[in-house]
Design goal:
Elements (H helix, E strand, L loop, with lengths): L1 E7 L3 H12 L4 E4 L16 E3 L10 H18 L4 E3 L2 E6 L12 H11 L5 E4 H7 L9 E6 L3 E3 L1 H14 L3 E3 L4 E6 L4 E5 L3 E9 L18 E10 L5 H4 L6 E5 L7 E4 L10 E4 L18 H12 L10 E11 L6 E5 L2 E8 L9 H14 L15
Parallel strand pairs: 1-2, 1-12, 2-9, 5-14, 12-19
Antiparallel strand pairs: 3-8, 4-8, 5-7, 6-7, 10-11, 11-12, 13-16, 13-17, 14-15, 15-16, 18-19
Helix pairs in contact: 1-5, 1-8, 2-5, 2-8
The protein binds flavin-adenine dinucleotide.
């Protein structure tokens, strides 16, 4: 069967691109090896932080701002709940220089992008943070950046909504079908799956943690996959302090190293749903098909001891549930959104490194423009292969 564009992988990026292409009348086929939204890739776990000022760099801000708009448009069209504004607090040592997502000055860049793009924010001293948010047990040496439009996205709802809309606008969606091979000919690309063969003028590879299956060396070596874990701790006895409306999204860099960092969300599922926290770990790489999805009590105790016990008040060591998730990380944690240097017909989208979701709706639009017009309205030159 012939299509204009085939999209391999229908997670955060692929579902967004399929929706955007279908909406403009392009003949698009989206294929996924599982049935998205699923919990085996990088797009599950109930919530993702979204923020307008971007500490990873000013080049990301147009993507997040456009994504806020698109998510609201989809909510209006689908009557679904995707984006919740809670306000968000980023805390760091006043000495600065904390490393997050490849940037040694994450909070400083957040502030500079907020100023550059006119994003409303406030600075808070340690005393002010302690007064407004007594849930945090501070050292007394923190500075805070508060953005009232920070919030969270519901990743599973976002994927489901965009796929539903894509189908409504005419996209062909193949679930539980695995792409085995892509073969480029002079005027089309052939995609072979475990169930058939399809042809298209262009393909978008948005395969998340499986991206290496579709890229040759040396570019393949840019991508490393790491196992991450979400933890939901019981706050039933102190629910008022953690419930939506009383507790912000938070990102807390309490030291200089990449895992001296914890982030979390309000309890969104009522008194007994728990509040979700996570950190980032880069100790060993993994394979998406073989990753250990069991979480041991030792891991829970370590997370509790390092990130919660002395930092977040009145949370007992009672973990209600956990989930594993995959980061696909490039050097400096930068995104890749580019055509393959050796083949203009193949567009690669790997915007993860732990911070891609908030940008995903706009990345879908960018990918659709790249595939149909060869360029995008939002400048993505910072995310080219040539930057590595
Ligand atoms: C623990 C964790 C926390 C995060 N927190 C945040 C956050 O707070 N804020 C934020 O902005 N971002 C965050 N991120 C990052 C964000 O979630 C990712 O950037 C985003 O989900 C990546 O989407 P993706 O489309 O690239 O990958 P996925 O959503 O995993 O999609 C890839 C898809 O490709 C499919 N696929 C792969 N190979 C094949 C094949 N051969 N055939 C068919 N289909 C195939 C897979 O089945 C999968 O569905 C976090 C990520 C993790 C893991």
């Amino acid at each position: 069967m012939n299509f204009d564009i085939i999209i391999i992988g229908l997670g955060a990026m692929g579902s967004a691109a399929t929706y955007q292409l279908a909406k403009t009348g392009v003949e698009v086929l989206g294929i996924d090896q599982f049935s998205p939204p699923h919990n085996l890739g990088s797009t599950h776990g109930e919530t993702r932080v979204t923020r307008k000022a971007i500490g990873e760099g000013a080049e990301y801000v147009p993507l997040t701002l456009r994504s806020y708009e698109i998510f609201r448009e989809i909510e209006a069209e689908m009557d679904t709940d995707l984006l919740t504004i809670t306000g968000g607090l980023i805390m760091s040592k006043s000495s600065g220089n904390a490393n997050l997502h490849g940037n040694n000055g994450f909070i400083e860049t957040t502030v500079s992008t907020a100023k550059k793009f006119g994003i409303k924010h406030q600075f808070l001293s340690s005393d002010e943070i302690a007064k407004q948010f007594p849930q945090f047990n501070l050292d007394g040496d923190e500075i805070g950046y508060f953005e009232d439009k920070m919030g969270f996205l519901r990743p599973e709802n976002c994927v489901a909504a965009q796929l539903e809309l894509a189908e409504k606008y005419g996209a062909a969606i193949k679930r539980n079908e695995k792409v085995l091979e892509i073969k480029s000919e002079s005027d089309f690309v052939e995609v072979k799956t475990n169930q058939g063969t399809y042809k298209a003028e262009k393909i978008i590879v948005s395969a998340g943690a499986w991206i290496k299956d579709f890229i040759n060396e040396p570019l393949q070596n840019l991508f490393k996959v790491y196992r991450q874990v979400f933890y939901w701790f019981d706050v039933a006895d102190n629910f008022e302090n953690f419930k939506l409306g009383n507790f912000p999204i938070f990102i807390w860099e309490f030291g200089r190293w990449e895992n001296d960092f914890v982030y979390g969300f309000p309890a969104i599922d009522g008194q007994f749903g728990g509040f979700k926290v996570a950190t980032e770990t880069y100790l060993e790489t993994t394979d998406p098909d073989k990753v250990n999805r069991q979480i041991s009590q030792k891991e829970i105790d370590e997370i509790y001891g390092k990130y919660i016990e002395n930092r977040i008040n009145n949370v007992p060591n009672k973990c209600l549930k956990t989930a594993t998730c995959l980061y696909t990380v490039t050097p400096n944690a930068r995104f890749v959104i580019d055509k393959l240097p050796e083949n203009e017909r193949i567009i690669v989208a790997s915007p993860c490194s732990g911070h891609g979701f908030k940008h995903s709706a706009a990345i879908g639009e960018v990918l659709a423009e790249l595939a149909t017009e060869g360029k995008s309205r939002i400048d993505i030159s910072a995310f080219s292969f040539a930057k590595f």
